[in-house]
Amino acid sequence: MPIPDLTLQQLRAVQAVAASGSFTKAAAVEHISQSVLSRRIKEVERLLRVRLFDRTTRQLDTTAAGQAFLLMTGTVLDDLDTQLQRFMSYVAAQSGTVALAALPSLAAVVLPDMIRGFMPDHSEVTFEIRDGDAAEVLGHLGSGTAELGLSANGDLPHDFCFMPLLREQFYGVAHHSHRWSMQGSLSWSDFGGETVVATPPGTSIRAMTDAVFGEHSIPVSRHFNAPSVAAIGGLLRAGVGVAALPALELQGFGLDDLVVVPVKSPNATRVTGVVYRGGQDLSPAAAGFLDFVRAAEIDPPRGCLAFSAKRPTWPAAHPM
Question: Higher confidence at residue 257 or residue 182?
Answer without folding.
Answer: 182
